[in-house]
Amino acid sequence: MKYSFLSAINSPKDLRKLAIEQLPQLATELRAYIIDIVSSKKGHLGAGLGVVELSIALHYIYNTPDDLLVWDVGHQAYAHKILTGRRKAFKTNRQYKGLSGFPSRSESEFDVFGTGHSSTSISAILGMAIAAQLLEKKRKHIAVIGDASIASGMAFEALNHAGVTDADILVVLNDNEMGIDPNVGALKDYLTSIKLDSKQTGNNIFEDLNFQYFGPMDGHNVEELIKILSYLKTVSGPKFLHIITTKGKGLSSAEKDQVTFHAPGIFDKKTGLIKTNFDTNLPPKYQDVFGLTLVELAKQNNNIIGITPAMPTGTSLKYMLEAFPKRAFDVGIAEQHAVTFAGGLATQGFIPYIAIYATFLQRAIDQIIHDIALQNLPVVFCIDRAGIVGNDGPTHHGIFDIAILRSIPNMIIAVPKDEIALRNLLYTAQYTTQPMAIRYPRGRGEHRNWQKEFKKITVGKGHLLSEGNKAAILTIGPFGNTVQNILKNHSELDIAHYDMAFVKPLDETLLHKILKKFDTLITIEDGTVNGGFGSAILEFSQTNNYINKKIRVLGIPDTFVQHGSVNELYSQLGLDEKSLYKTILNLINL
C-alpha cells in the first residue's frame, strides 16, 4: 500500500497539519501499516487495530506530549507509537534491543507512564492531574482504558477517588466487549445495557461517581471523535467518554476470531491465515499439560475447582471451563478477588486450582499472605509463564515469584523439570493440606508421550540425576534438562547433578549429603537470584555451618530484563547452554 499521508508524519505536529477530511484515509494507511509489520514480526494485533481512529483523534486534538496521555495495559498503543515519531523503528517492535511492545517512559516523551499490566491508567492520570494543580500547570490529562480493564478493582478505586476531585481528567472507555478472551461479569452486562439504551434515561454508574458522561458513540468515526474531543477539551473536571469499537477492525479474520488475533504470531496479511507449525508430533505446551491434566483430575475428584483471572485461553483453563462449566470460573481481571475467592472455597472443603501468569500473581500478594497462607488454606497456585518469557519484556517476565513466595510461611513451592513432573505435581497437590505453588514456563516441554499414569510425589524431595565427583549442580525446573544436555555432551566435566524439585521445603537430608561430599556447588534458576532458590541453598549452608564451601548462584541478576527472544535473553544473561558450560568449566578449574 502507498502510505501517502502516513509517510509524512513523524510527530503529532505533522498529524495536525492534515485536514479533518483527510483523517479517514490516514486511518486506513495506519491500519494497513500495523497489519504489514505485525504479520511478519508478531505482536499484539487486535487491540491496536481497534483504536486507530481514536489514536489519531487524540493526538490531533490534544497537544501531546504537553497534554498527558496514558494507555491502559498498552496492547493498543501501536498506532500511538507510530504517530509519535517511531514509525520507522516500528519494525523492531518487541525485538531484541528494539521498541518495547508496551508504552515505556525510557523510550519516548510521549509515553508518559509505563504500562503492561491492566487497570493502572486512571490512577496514574489522576496523580498527574493533581500534580498539575499543585504545580499550577495548565494541561489536559487523558486515560484510555478497555472494558475488561475497567472492571478491575484498581480502576474502580481510581474512579472513586477522582469523582470527589475537580481534577481535569478524561477517561476514555474503549468498549469492544473483549479482553484477551470475551469479557465476563455483571459490568459487561451493564455496559451492554447502556449501549442499548440510546436515549440514556437517568444517571449511569459513571455519573453517579461524579463524572460527566458522554456517549456511547462510534469509535471508528474519526470526524465524530474529533468533534466530541474538541468539546471535551473545553470542559473542566472529571469526564468520561464511552466509545464502541471492534477489536481487530480492518482485518476480517481478526474481527471474526478476536481471541486468536489478540496476538496471532506470523500471518498472511492478505488472507489473514496464520502460519502455524503443523508438526503435530511436537511436545505439548506446559499450559496445555496443566489444562488437560486438570480436566482428568476433576473427573476423578468432584471437589476440584478451576479459577483464572481473565486468562482461560492463555492458561488453558478453557478445557475445564468446557468440561465442567459449573466448577470452573473466569473471574475477569481480578487477581486479588481470584485468590480470596479460592480461599473461601477452600474453607468449605473444595480444592481450588488458580491458573495465573507469574507476572500477574504479583498483583495479589497481600491476599496470598493474609487470606491463604495465614489461614493455611489448601489453595493450589498454578503459576504459568514463570521465568523469562521473551518479547513482552520486563512487565511480563515471571522472575520474582520464588523470592516473594519463599518468604511466606506455610507455602510449598514446587518447580517441575518437565511436563511429566508437572502432571504428577498437579495430581499430588490435591492431597496437600496447605498452600502449594507449582511454577512452570511458557513454551513446550520435553516429552511427546507425557500422559502417563499419575504418580504421587513426596513433597520436599529432590533426587540425583547424574553422578559426579568434582562439583554438584543443583537445578529447579527445565534448567535441569539444559544441564543434562551439557553433561551428556561433556562427560569430562565429572559433575553430579541434582534436581531439587522443591524450593520450599528444601530436601534437607539430600542437601546435607551434597554439602558433605562437595566443596563446589552451582545453583541454577529461572528467577531472581535475590532471595530465590540459590539464596535458600546459601542460607541452608550458612545455618548448618558448612564453611569454606564455594557456592555459585546463577539466575536473573538484580535488574529488569528487557525484551527479546528467550534464547537471546538467556544468552545475554549467561544462562544459555553454551554460556553455562563455560561458567561450569571455569568454576571447577579454579
| CATH level-1 class of the largest domain | Alpha Beta
Beta-strand fraction estimate:
15-25%
Distance between the termini: 61 Å
Contiguous helical run count: 24
**Which percent range fits the helix content?**
25-40%
Task: Give the oligomer, counting copies of the same chain as homo and different chains as hetero.
Answer: single chain
Strand order of the largest sheet: 7-6-8-9-11-10-15
* Major sheet: 7 strands, mixed
* Number of strand segments: 17
CATH architectural group of the largest domain: 3-Layer(aba) Sandwich
Which stretches are poorly predicted, pLDDT < 50 over at least 5 residues? none
Could you tell me the CATH topology label of the largest domain.
Rossmann fold
Tally of separate domains: 3
The coarse silhouette is globular
Based on secondary structure, the structural category is: alpha/beta
Going by CATH, the homologous superfamily of the largest domain would be: Thiamin diphosphate (ThDP)-binding fold, Pyr/PP domains
Indicate the mean pLDDT: 95
Q: How large is the radius of gyration?
A: 26 Å
